[in-house]
Write a sequence for this structure.
């Protein structure tokens, strides 16, 4: 893995797992068996353990490699289909994902359903031959350059319990009635999208899992989404440059600050790996996953603050300045995407009382 | 605030509020031209603060603050003043958004976690504004200018973080206006010395004065 990364062919970025979209790089990784590596061989996987996969992810993130194109499929849509998908769905999507040729987006959020995800309004009505979708998804990362989107929709009218009547569908982003409008990040980079459905017909067999079971499925997906090493390594490339700038003799204040970050990072790795183990054992460590994301995203910010206070940004080397600017401009997203830290803390606090 | 300054501030809001105009010429035209070298620094500061509030990036420092000598210190004061103006805008946008946006059937400002963030933001802005006003009143004091940049620099980072957190994904887009102020806050807090550079200078000063004179240093005797 390290030899492969040393060959290079990419520029190191902060937050590359979300914004470093490079299909060619994803295909090269897939060729070496590093996409979908825990999945069964009959679906194009390698049958490796979660911890082996974890090691691969960490190497990629530490190097700031452009893994965004396949990240969602590898992290959560693949496991979701393995769990809840039909045999035909697995056959259709998993091998293509594992070849790095089939990219997925996450269609959960809507203009009025952010933190309050259960209030999604996009509807899917059963019609001859499938589902007819109407509504709007928003903030869908990379929808403009992905093939499919796993989409949370309402398949029966909003009733007393808002968590009822939701389902997940695989939607072809180039299908009829689907329009995708890119939305730029504050940096001007294209990143997320608004995806509008106007009588979009989705074939019957694209329903994932049971009709009406969407909320439970989404919740299980979120444990994968929230607990991985990408939740604390987004700014690691900046930490590398900070250490380089400070050199072997960083002074007392420098040593203390670097040591504090190092200590925290080691502990975070332990916590996150523990969630990976529990996911592998078939548990649903939702509270622990929320904890990892809350702690990890705050650590990512701490790296940025420590870096700028130790190394005057305006007189630092070129690499530091580039990574520092990326880290600062991307940092607002860390504590929003995948559930805001306020919402995560609510999950943790409620879980602790049990 | 004197009646004259209130008028000045009002006019400044109008001229800087207009996009695509040469700020200095507008200031001239509006009769704010006597903000030249012998103007009251507090007046100059008030105008700079408004320019930042309105999202206009101008560099008055060379023209209006030459008597402040040391360019690093002058630049730091200039940036601290701008940070306060930008932070006031960021606070106003955030308070308004939290009242308007609803989730779970309520406006965001009904959630205690959001209230905590809003209060923290308001506190940061108030603290930075006071530190800057104090420095403007005695701009040759190295200690006060250093304190102003430390307070403003810290508030810039923490304030921008809170503003983005409360705005959610929409504030993270280019379409939304928030970034016009937050990206400047991120740049200005690093220019002419970060908080740690100025804090070091302040810390040296405190240490040299010694334990028994600390309170005198605090009270400015
Ligand atoms: C970079 C990025 C990528 C994203 N990618 C995707 C994607 O691919 N697919 C997708 O579906 N979504 C995506 N999202 C959307 C993300 O999931 C939402 O931003 C998030 O759920 C918050 O929703 P919101 O932005 O509407 O903020 P809001 O829900 O409006 O929240 C605004 C503020 O209010 C607080 N708040 C809200 N409710 C409460 C409460 N009950 N108690 C306390 N505080 C509260 C929040 O914590 C936040 O600080 C992405 C977001 C970002 C920033």
């Amino acid at each position: 893995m390290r030899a492969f990364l040393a060959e290079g062919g990419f520029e190191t970025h902060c937050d590359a797992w979300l914004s470093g979209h490079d299909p060619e790089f994803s295909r090269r990784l897939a060729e070496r068996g590093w996409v979908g590596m825990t999945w069964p061989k009959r679906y194009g996987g390698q049958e490796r353990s979660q911890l082996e996969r974890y090691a691969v992810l960490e190497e990629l993130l530490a190097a700031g490699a452009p893994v965004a194109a396949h990240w969602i499929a590898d992290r959560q849509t693949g496991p979701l289909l393995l769990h809840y998908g039909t045999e035909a769905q697995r056959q259709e999507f998993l091998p293509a994902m594992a070849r790095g040729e089939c990219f997925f987006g996450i269609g959960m959020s809507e203009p009025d359903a952010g933190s309050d995800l259960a209030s999604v309004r996009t509807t899917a009505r059963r019609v001859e031959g499938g589902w007819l979708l109407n509504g709007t998804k928003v903030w869908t990362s990379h929808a403009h350059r992905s093939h499919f989107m796993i989409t949370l929709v309402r398949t029966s009218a909003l009733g007393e319990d808002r968590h009822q009547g939701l389902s997940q569908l695989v939607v072809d982003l180039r299908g009829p009635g689907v329009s995708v409008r890119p939305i730029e990040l504050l940096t001007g980079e294209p990143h997320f999208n608004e995806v509008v459905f106007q009588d979009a017909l989705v074939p019957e067999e694209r329903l994932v899992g049971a009709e009406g079971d969407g909320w439970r499925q989404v919740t299980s997906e979120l444990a994968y989404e929230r607990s991985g090493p990408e939740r604390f390594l987004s700014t690691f490339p900046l930490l590398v440059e900070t250490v380089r700038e400070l050199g072997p003799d960083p002074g007392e204040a420098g040593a203390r600050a670097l040591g504090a970050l190092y200590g925290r990072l080691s502990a975070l790795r332990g916590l996150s790996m523990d969630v990976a183990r529990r996911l592998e054992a078939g548990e649903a460590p939702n509270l622990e996953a929320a904890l990892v994301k809350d702690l990890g995203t705050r650590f990512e910010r701490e790296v940025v603050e420590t870096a700028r206070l130790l190394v005057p940004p305006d007189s630092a080397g070129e690499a530091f300045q580039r990574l520092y600017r990326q880290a600062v401009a991307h940092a607002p997203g860390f504590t929003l995407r995948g559930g805001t830290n306020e919402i995560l803390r609510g999950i943790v606090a409620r879980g602790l009382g049990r | 605030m004197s009646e004259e300054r209130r008028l000045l501030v009002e006019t400044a809001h109008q001229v800087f509020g207009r996009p695509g105009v040469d700020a200095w010429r507008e200031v001239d035209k509006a009769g704010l031209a006597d903000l030249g070298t012998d103007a009251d620094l507090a007046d100059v500061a008030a105008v700079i603060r408004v320019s930042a509030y309105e999202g206009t990036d101008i560099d008055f420092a060379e023209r209006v603050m030459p008597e402040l000598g040391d360019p690093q210190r002058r630049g730091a004061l200039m940036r601290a003043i701008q940070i306060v103006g930008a932070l006031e805008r960021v606070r106003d946008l955030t308070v308004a958004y939290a009242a308007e946006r609803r989730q779970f059937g309520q406006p965001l400002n009904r959630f205690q976690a959001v209230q905590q963030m809003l209060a923290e933001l308001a506190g940061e802005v108030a603290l930075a504004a006071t530190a800057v006003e104090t420095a403007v009143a005695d701009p040759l004091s190295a200690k006060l200018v250093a304190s102003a940049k430390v307070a403003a620099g810290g508030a810039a980072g923490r304030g921008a973080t809170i503003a983005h957190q409360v705005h959610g994904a929409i504030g993270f887009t280019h379409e939304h206006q928030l970034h016009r102020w937050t990206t400047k806050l991120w740049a200005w807090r690093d220019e002419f010395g970060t908080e740690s550079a100025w804090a070091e200078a302040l810390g040296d000063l405190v240490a040299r004065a010694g334990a028994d004179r600390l309170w005198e240093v605090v009270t400015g005797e």
